[in-house]
Structures are given as structure tokens and as C-alpha cells.
Write a structure and sequence with these properties.
Length: 143
Amino acid sequence: CTHVTKVLYVLFVLLSMSHIPIPYTLTLVAEPGHDVTIWCQHNLMEVAYIYWFTHTNHSVPHHVACQLYKKSSASSPCSFVHQSKRMVMSVNSQNTSLTITAVNHTDSGLYYCGIRQSLEISFSNTTYLQVTGNVPCKRVTLH
């Protein structure tokens, strides 16, 4: 957490000095084992790849989900992105969501979506997911 806070602080200082507006960041707090849904708004009029990215606990950015959106048919998963079974992505012409089932502490981090249309990619505002509380314990019986 402190590393993410330091990185965000440095980013804040750099953006403040350059007079670039800082994007809105939402913070979601969840307990281990709960399901969390993160939303991204857009207005798609043509074919687009929609990605979900994350930065978690000292990681470089990586994509956790991807779908190909087509206005004329249902969206389909991207074959080149390995998607965890705990991450469920939904897409329509105005929104995309990423639902993370049974969150745990390793899911804490920054999440955002990216939309690639033609040769351009645009990114959404970020959501910081903070998983707090105790890790659920399994009951162990000793014989």
C-alpha cells in the first residue's frame, strides 16, 4: 500500500506541476471473499477491443480481461488475453464492467479500462480497489 501511495503522490506532484488535469479516481473498499464490480463508461459506435488493466502490489500494468465489441453481434473474449475465472467482463455500447468474484488481498490495486478503436487507444478514469480485513480462515481438524 505504501508503494502505491508513494507512486500516486509522485504522479500527483508531476501532474500538478505540468498543469495537466488529474483524472478522477474512485476508491472501492471490500472485505475478502466479497464480489466487486468496477464500471467504465464509453460510447462505442464501431468495432473496438475493450481491455481491463490493473496495477497490483508493485506490478507493472497488465491486462486482466479483454473483449471484442461489435455493434451488430454479441461481444466475444479476446483469444490473446488469459482471463482468470474470477474476473467476469460484460460489455454493451455504453458501459463495460469487470466483476471480481471472491476478492482477496492480492486483488488490491488500481484498475482501469482501455478502448482500442482503429489505431487509437483511450483510457478510463481509475478505480482503486482496497481489500481490507482478515483473510478468511479454513477450519482445520486435527486427529
